[in-house]
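Example record

The entry below shows one chain as it appears in the dataset: sequence first, then structure tokens.
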Amino acid sequence: MHLNPYGADAVLLAVNLATRPANTPEELAARCEESGVENRLVRARRVTAEDLATVRTALDEWLQVVDATDEQTRVDLVNAMLAKYTEHPRLTNHAGDGWHMHYRPANVPVGWLVATLISTGTALHLAGRGVTRLGRCATDGCDNVYADLSRTGRQRYCSPACANRDAVRRHRARVTDA
């Protein structure tokens, strides 16, 4: 069975790269490999400065999706990314490990590959889990993004550390007011 590389892993890669941007092509390659998303393809190709620039542009567009203030704007922005970075879906068995879907032609540069994964993964995430399932951390002073993969769809923080920090702040505020 071939797992879908366009799902949660792709959205989590976007969160990772938006929170801690890659500064060099080598760092981008390492982060893609760490994420496990299409790592064979990244490993087989040299990541260039142009790839890094393409990913930065895609992440800027993705952050507009995250920061959209209403559902229709968010959907329109994701659709614009899909129109820009993807092509018609096709079945492929390029690695010999099973048939699976691709939303891009073969042999695209790594930057375009990552942009395709992020845009398609985000669309699938929002369609499958809910259009509101991306956001910025609710902790004062933290601007990190999150992709809500929770069962309940109520994530508001980028990490357990920020959730705990905010809970302590709220508790102290209640104790002070009492």
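Notes for this example: The radius of gyration is 18 Å. The chain has seven helices and four strands.
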